[in-house]
Amino acid sequence: MSSRMSRKPRPRRAPLWRALFALAAVAASLYFALTTPPRLGLDLRGGTQIVLETRNGPTARADAAATDRALEVLRQRVDALGVSEPSLARSGERRIVVELPGVQDPRKAAEVVGRTAQLTFHPVLAASAPDGGAARTLPDPDAPGQHLRLGPPALTGKDVKDARAVLDTQAGGGWTVALSFRGGGEKSWARATGEAACAAPGDAARRVAIVLDDRVVSAPAMQQSVPCRSGIQGGSARITGGFGDAEARDLAALVKGGALPVPVEVVEQRTVGPTLGAEAIRASAAAAVIGLVCTAVFVVAVYRLLGVLATVALALYGLISYAALVALGATLTLPGLAGFVLAIGMAVDANVLVFERTREEYARRPAAVSDLRGPLGKGFGKAWSAVVDSNVTTLLAAGLLFFFATGPVKGFGVTLSVGVVASMVSALVITRVLADWALRRPGVRRRPRLAGVASAGRVRAFLARRGPRLMRHRRTWPAVSGALLALAVTGIGVRGLQLGVEFTGGRLVEYGTSRPVDAERARAAVGDAGFPRAVVQKAGNGDVVVRSGDLSDRDQQRVKTALETYGGTVTVERDERIGPSLGSELRDKALLALGAAVAAQLLYLSVRFRWTFATAAVAAMVQDVLLVTGLFAWLGRPADSVFLAALLTVVGYSVNDTVVVFDRIRETHRLAGAGRASLASAVDSAILQTVPRTLNTGMGVLFVLTALAALGGDSLADFSLALLAGVLFGMASTVLTAAPLAVVLEGRRPEAVAASPTPRAEKAGRGSGAVV
User: Fold this and answer.
1) Which of 1, 233, 554, 718 stands the most exposed, by the fewest C-beta atoms within 10 Å?
2) Which pLDDT value is given to residue 766?
3) Contact indicator for 573, 511 with CB cutoff of 8 Å
């Protein structure tokens, strides 16, 4: 009796721990989602971003320490400007990224933030014309046409303790800048003003010149009340010069911030209007809702009760991924929102893989299944390897985006990575907890078709009846793919790829007009403004987009004025300027990211499969990238940083699809036995078995991308187009390129696929349900 009792199986604790983990994840996500506000990027809330690069000065080298000191000076300037929630951060060794929410005038922002601000105080030696002598001679701000000959500096900006704009009500209501000095600066100021007060009234030597960046901003004369030799005591001074409110505040900010330790240069500048950002948020939110609803309806129609549970898990996936982003403090940008929406569609993939495997397990012995949780458990076990492999390949692409890209595309990589991890938690934990609970109900156990387990699906039934043998023409399919590839390469060679300003350097400005302006009139207006070679296009929302290699802030205003002739009131909705050095650097990084993506995928797949399979998968992936690039070349669409994000996503999705098929080929061929003929039949069988998963997953992604393309506006149209094409090409390349090429490569080697690396789960035994 006791012996029998000792053999009694102990209750399984895995479902309980799984349920507790799912509950904890949802509870934590609710907490962060409700208590932590999202951090929106400037392209969503409007504002200006300036990237400054430090340069070597005559006395200081632009290293990390000098850049940090420059960052602190810039921080004081920005704080004095009164910008709400500014952000300043060092990027790399020599770059500083400044974000100014709500600032729509990039000319003013760059002028105040990027000036060197070398502040000095000089005794005036005499009033004279410029003579080119050793003494410093600068124009007199109070007497046009006259100059002041200055002596050596008596004080510098380092001696200034504080500076603030003050409205002088006793002197006609003008604005002045009040200064206070620190330490030895008080004595130096008293000495300089005391020596000036000893000069005769009306003599230029009675003045002290305040010089900022080689310009005399003020040269006040000492009043009669200032004692000779003693000067102005108390360590305070006042800069006058007929300033307005804004001029006084800007000057105070520069003086208080002090001089930059090294010169800086603006290498990138972006401005987004608040209207454009609000429209992007609404469009992305609407696309997310519509895409999720369409995906939910489709999944429920195909998988019934399991589809309902998957829909609940998808909603919780959205909650978890959003909460993870706000908890990490990630900045949500426009490409990041697109990645968030796209990940919703990709989250369907893991659920579909599990459900299709569950149906297969039930179909093997339907009469012997008394508990639907048995096929479900085996479905999860057998889908595990494919889910991990497919998501790891996507994470590799997202990680490369993070390490090699900059700006918004880096945000896209972060969002996509979080989405992939959250989708695995949603599918493998939350969906399983809900499914285990639902399939335990007696009413569900008696109705396996209602549960979605017993239905094989129309696509699977059709393929089972027809049984096409695709590998009979394994040399024909690559020829078809080669023809498409030749067409794409021809487009790149003949039409050329239109690189965006991120990769070429230059300036792109999007102007909104109160009256519609056609492209020809806009080109004429831009040509009349002095830029006949500028590229002028119409955006999808009716705005005018002007792109030029060299366009200063003053030139931008001239173009705006010229467009007002035809367009009425003209506003700047978007303004991007990239320096030529940064453009070439970004271009090199883009090529490096693509090359690293190919190498990383090849290495990972070689470990997980055979090198022949890895080569076939990477060849199909490269083909998909070239096809999307060729499509953009034929259509004349720009290849910018958002296009790069789409390409690297295509890399992940293409390998994702191929890995699922190869995973099934390995399993099917191992069960059938080695041999070249059996490999071809195994490939046919694997493709037919995975077609329902490919179509169902593809439909989920296409719903979301179609919603993005229709509602995302011009800013997301190219992104959606690239991914739509990439998804379709990826689904086709698995069958037409990767699988036939794998068979051909394996046919050249005597070894069988069965010798490929076997996952540990299968080595442990078939009973584990992890045959992959």
Assistant:
1) 1
2) 35
3) yes
Task: Give yes or no for a contact between 54 and 263, defined as CB atoms under 8 angstroms apart.
Answer: yes
Note whether 52 and 98 are within 8 A (CB). Answer: yes
Tokens of 649: 């996503």
- DSSP letters spanning 97-147: EEEEET---HHHHHHHHH----EEEEEEEEEE----SSSEEEE-TTSTT-E
Asked whether the beta carbons of 267 and 582 are under 8 A apart, the reply is yes
Q: Helical H runs in 495-579? A: 501-504, 519-528, 553-567
Rg (CA), the chain: 34
CB 414 within 8 A of CB 337: no
Tokens of residue 595, six digits: 């090359």
List Cβ neighbours of 235 (8 Å cut-off, separation of 6 or more).
Answer: 161, 180, 181, 182, 185, 186, 189, 190
Higher pLDDT, 459 or 691: 691
pLDDT tens string 335-380: 676 666 667 766 787 888 888 888 888 877 765 566 777 888 888 8
Burial call 680-703: b when 16+ CB within 10 Å, e when fewer: bebbbbbbbbbbbbbebbbbbbbb
- CA dist 158 to 75, 257, 258, 718, Å? 16, 9, 6, 50
Q: Which burial class, exposed, middle or buried, applies to 544 when counting CB atoms under 10 A from its CB (0-12, 13-18, 19+)?
A: buried
CA distances to 114, 127, 138, 153, 206 from 199, rounded to whole Å, are 38, 13, 20, 18, 5
Interatomic CA distance for residues 87 and 101, integer angstroms: 9
Q: What is the predicted pLDDT for the residue at 27?
A: 92
For residue 450, give the nearest of 296, 295, 300 by alpha carbon. 300
- Calculate the alpha carbon distances from 63 to 53, 68, 147, 258, 753 in Å: 11, 9, 38, 19, 54
Residue 653 pairs in a beta bridge with none
Taking each continuous run of H as one helix and of E as one strand, the counts in the chain are 26, 19
Over range 710-735, report the average pLDDT. 79
Q: Write the pLDDT tens digit of every residue in 512-558.
A: 888 888 878 888 888 888 888 787 877 766 788 888 777 777 788 88
What's CA 506's distance to the chain center, in Å? 20
Residue 288 half-sphere exposure toward CB, CA atoms < 13 A: 21
Residue 591, token pair as written in the block = 């090529």
Residue 395 contacts residue 417 (beta carbons within 8 Å): yes
pLDDT at 761: 38
Contact 544/536 with Cβ under 8 angstroms? yes
Which of 335, 320, 349 shows the shortest CA–CA distance to 419? 320
Residue bearing tokens 């490929």: 756
Separation between Cα atoms, residue 309 and residue 434, nearest integer Å: 6
Q: Using an 8 Å Cβ cutoff, are 577 and 269 in contact?
A: yes
